[in-house]
Amino acid sequence: MSGFLIFLAGALCVLVVAFLYKNSTKWYEWLLGLGWYAWVVMGVSFVYSNYMGHHHKAAAVGMTFFGIIAIISAFVIVRVTGLIGKKTVKTGYKEAV
C-alpha cells in the first residue's frame, strides 16, 4: 500500500510541475504550488500513519483539517496563476487585473 502512495505522490508531483510550467511565470507562483504539494503530501502521510496505527478518529480529523486547507489553497493558487479569470469576448485572452 505504501508503494502505491509513493507512486501517487510522484504522479501528483509531475502534474503540479507540469501545471506550473505551463501556467506560471513568477517565482511566488512556483512557491505556492510547491507549498501546496508539500501540504498534500504531509496530509496523506498523516492520515496514512494514523490509520495504520488504528487511530481512526485522529485520521478523520487530520483528513478534514488537511483536506479543507488543501482545497482552499488550491483555489487560491489557481486564481493567482490566472487559470480562473475573466476572458474578453473580442480576443479570447484573459484580462490583466
Major beta-sheet overview: none
Q: How much helix, percentage-wise, in residues?
A: over 70%
The assigned structural class equals mainly alpha
Residue ranges: pLDDT <50 for 5 or more in a row?
none
C-alpha end-to-end distance = 45 Å
| Total discrete domains | 1
Mean pLDDT: 83
- Principal-axes shape call: elongated
Order of helices and strands: HHH
Radius of gyration, in angstroms, nearest whole number: 17 Å
Number of separate helices: 3
Number of strands: 0
* Approximate strand percentage: under 5%
Keywords: Membrane, Transmembrane, Transmembrane helix
Descriptive labels:
97 residues; mainly alpha; 3 helices; 0% strand; elongated; membrane; transmembrane; transmembrane helix
Can you describe this structure?
This protein is mostly helical and 97 residues long. It has one domain. It contains 3 helices and no strands. α1 (2-23) packs antiparallel against α2 and α2 runs antiparallel to α3. The longest helix is centred in the middle third of the chain and has 26 residues, at 27-52. The protein is elongated. Keywords: Membrane, Transmembrane, Transmembrane helix. The chain crosses the membrane at residues 30-51, 58-78.
